[in-house]
Amino acid sequence: MISTKIKYIIIFIIYFSNFCYSKYVPSARYGTSCVLDKNNNIIYFIGGESGGTKNCLNDFFYLTLPDSNMQPIFEEITEPPKEYCWSSLSLAEGRNQFQTVSDNENNYLYIFGGEKNNKFFKDMNILNTKYSSWNNMMILGAQKIINVPYWADYTAIMLSSGEIVYIGGRQSTSPNGLNVSFAKMNEIYVFNTKSSSWDIINTSGNVPDSRIGHSAVLNSNNEIIVYGGASSEDLVTLATPDLVILSIASKPYQWIIPKVENVPKSRSFHSAATVGNFMITAFGYIAGTQNETNLISILDFSDTANVRWTSYDMIQASQTDKEETGLKETFISQNLAVILGGTIGGVVVLSVIIVVTILLYKAWRSHSNMRGRHQLPSSQSS
């Protein structure tokens, strides 16, 4: 009986401790910027756009990446800044649909092209982060004149050689956005930061669809992993295959299609970053639709010939938490009388035990004193 009441008391305490704890789950979105803190295995996210409101968001939060198979955890940072979307975390100018590339060794940030209000750009802006100074340049090819297109929605990867590889996106023949087409995937534009020049490298292998809204990350094997995106302006047509690898170990570059396990729904306009042998993707559109998601997917590319996905549906996890909280509330409401009765009853029983113990102790002491008096010798005996 007492053990049952104690059980209810423990459940009551656990419930209220869980009730006071709330898990932060960011809303579904697209066009979110992210940056990786490699030292602490944390990815920081800022803003994005919500289709429900068509407004830029201003929340600032980070994703802690666990060492084990535990689910990744989001934490919100208070006092968010101005609303941002379709930008880079190294925002520099009044334009969007571009990607910032950092040269940490030489303290430079590179921003190429972009778009603003249907106006396309093709200039290269270079920020010296040490002296906070800008350079803006229109650049020609080193050995031949290369007419770099006006360009937006690309991905850019900095190589250890000091070259920046640009993949995918929309290109225009004029700043007014005339004759817009998707960038060819069999011709890769490369910018050499050491010579400040462009080159075009042809590719071989299984050339994938042209695309926008994709991501690209570099692994330790000199391979660029390209994921997701759409091959049409309306975002309805999926870019296939959705996961491809560009080997840049030698020229021409080579496209490789790996074997993929646990394939999640493809996405576009998502965020992506690498930690060790893992690529973490978050948010974006479910490709082929304009439905936003806050799905977290982790790609294990330890073996690039056979890669494997693990996904975490943060919305479903949030709903599960709410359902569990609802079950707890239902349990408490239905058993509140039993819990309170058990608690009060337990206190009463404990009080009775204490009182009885005290009375028994007093009786025992009194009896002991009486026996002591009978055993004392008479002081009048001779």
From TrEMBL:
Gene3D superfamilies: Kelch-type beta propeller
Key words of the record: Kelch repeat, Membrane, Repeat, Transmembrane, Transmembrane helix
Domain of life: Eukaryota
Pfam hit, one: Kelch_KLHDC2_KLHL20_DRC7
Transmembrane segments: 336-361
Name the record gives this protein: Galactose oxidase
Protein species of origin: Rhizophagus irregularis
